[in-house]
Structure formats: C-alpha cells, structure tokens
Amino acid sequence: GARHIRTRPYTPQTNGKAERFIKTLQEEWAYGVPYKSSEQRNAALQRWLHIYNCQRPHGGINFKTPISRLIQNQ
Fold first, then answer.
1. pLDDT, tens only, 28-53
2. All structural domains of the chain with their residue ranges
3. 39-48: long-range contacts (C-beta < 8 A, 24 or more apart)?
C-alpha cells in the first residue's frame, strides 16, 4: 500500500518531513558515530533504520514508532 509522493520544488512546507528525516539520518547514523570506513557505515544503516522505524518514539506522532502507526492504520 505504500506509494511514492513527490513534493513541489522549493516549498519547504510540503517537504518538511523528508528534510527532518534527512537531518536525523545525518545526525544519528552518518555522522553520529565514528566509523572506520564507508563500508562499516553502510553496514550500520539497516540496523539504524530498524531502530528508527520500530523502536525510536517520534514526537510528531505522539511518541509512537512509525511501524506502530502503520500497523494501526491498516
């Protein structure tokens, strides 16, 4: 049921969620941990995505996890 939705260019109001995700990705995964190599960083991405989607509460959705919201809306 997932689908790709494009936002209008140069309109931060419509792409705020994507921008916030990118900032969090950079702070917590890409640069938040010192990695010895790009390969090590890439290997850590799947674990970080699991934590982000399944364990980490998000303030914008009443401190629920994205996966719980997805399951709730099915």
1. 999 999 999 999 999 999 999 999 99
2. 16-72
3. none
